[in-house]
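Sorry to interrupt, but I need a hand with the structure work. Could you write out one complete protein record for me, on any chain you like? Just paste the record in under my message, thanks.

. . .
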Amino acid sequence: MLGNLSKNKKQIRGYLFILPAFLFFLIFLIYPIIFSTALSFYDWSGYSNNPFQNFIGLNNYIRMFNDPVFWTSFKNTIYFVILSIIFQNVFGLSISMFLFYGKIKASSLWRSIVFFPAMLSAVMVGMIWRRIFMGDGLLNMILSSIDSSLGNFQWLGNMVTPIFVVILINTWQWTGYNMVLYYAGLQGVNNLLIESAKVDGANWLQTITKIVIPQLYKTISLAVILNIIGGFKVFDIVYIMTGGGPAHASEVITSHIYNQSFSMLGQNRMGYGSAMAAVLAVVVIVFAAIRIRVERKMD
């Protein structure tokens, strides 16, 4: 009897310890998800006291699938995700291998330099690079010094390059983060297998592709899913550098949600923005589920 009472007290004490974190999780994550999902079935401007007054069913979702700007933003987001995965992982893995196996002097210093952009505010990064890529910015000044005809290109003012410029800057900022992940993963690689491969006559390319990379599968999987999530929720760097323009050329889903929901120049369609947010959440969950399923099969 006393033993059961003591056990129950320990359980209650344990629940009390996790209660603050659970309440935080409930209030700031679960409740907003439920509220936003429910709001996607209503037409609400964000100003009335009762957001659940004008029920419109699936009209927000129908409007979304008939919205050409949504599909433009979705296409740009897919570009952003795919190119971010490729560039950040290729560069991050290459730099980490170069620093880990290259016996570079002051390796820790070089790692710090590469990682440094990830510590900067995305707002500050966007403002600096926006000034560099403007029509009268540093990049065009350098190009003009080479050839006067090269210094008039509007990097952020045409319909093709803005989204790729933003992807380039995002890659510059976050490659160092991937490098740190891969550098940590390389410390767990079995060096005996590498030495055996060398004895068997394997060249460096065969060693990397057949020995090192397969042992980094967990790290690669983690880096890819982080890149996917980060790519789908990207907002700050796009908003600061281009605002989604010109003419939605660099619009991504999150910036379109912002512009439609509560931007000063937007439509104040909180319900419509919630519908797009719900679809975005489903897409991210699907990618995460695919990654988990593939990882289990590989295991």
Q: What stands out?
A: The radius of gyration is 24 Å. The mean pLDDT is 86. Residues 2-39 form the longest helix (38 residues).
